[in-house]
């Protein structure tokens, strides 16, 4: 055991560190490195800036999304095994069909300025992006209904909420937020099309993930979907009603602000294909004023 080459000892050592768990994705994640022993990375890594982008003048640190999810699942390992036992399921038969629902949250943390000190000049506001594993289900091939084997008892507690990314940025700074959270969104998108293979209870099991953006407040939703700020005439983040329309009709609204629709409207706003005046154009795009970068699924 002792006289082994250094790299073998190093990797053995790594496996004993908290947060280092071996896993794989099938198929492999697009545009994401396959190494799994990734620690804290620069929040701007993964952002490919285009010619006219000003480099984001900020400090951000984050975990890679898939590494953080694996770590969260490993923390729940005992709960998952207990859940299988409580439902009377034979754990050796349950190797695939697991799904995990993840709640994403993002919010400004207010003023974090140094009262004195001579650190680097950064915005004196901070934003934290985090997630919570809300539930884990298992569905068998021959059955319609999924069986819930884990449900987060305190979904709004600080204890179940895991920070993914911390950044010095004002939450209204759309460009910098896009630069930092853009790569996070790309990783999330890649994970939706793949399955995670991870050892839980000594056996390889496969997981799929569903992401729900229910932890954003209205200001953040507007920021991420490229909508005008809260003082806008277009009062709703889900539909196109103006204040006047909303006051007259409190009941009948349909969800018309989807991510793809907001993207189309931004393109119209940017190109102004009908050569309209500013007011006409604004009325046409219903208050979309920037390019939306993060899909926030409307779950009421």
TrEMBL record:
GO terms for cellular component: DNA recombinase complex; endodeoxyribonuclease complex; nucleus. Residues 101-232 form the V(D)J recombination-activating protein 1 RNase H domain. Residues 234-296 form the V(D)J recombination-activating protein 1 ZnC2 domain. Residues 1-22 form the V(D)J recombination-activating protein 1 DNA-binding domain. GO terms for biological process: adaptive immune response; B cell differentiation; chromatin organization; T cell differentiation in thymus; V(D)J recombination. It comes from the Eukaryota. Coiled coil: none annotated. One of its GO terms (molecular function) is double-stranded DNA endonuclease activity. Residues 24-96 form the V(D)J recombination-activating protein 1 pre-RNase H domain. Pfam families: RAG1_DNA-bd (PF26024), RAG1_pre-RNase_H (PF26025), RAG1_RNase_H (PF26100), RAG1_ZnC2 (PF26101). This is RAG-1. It comes from Homatula variegata.
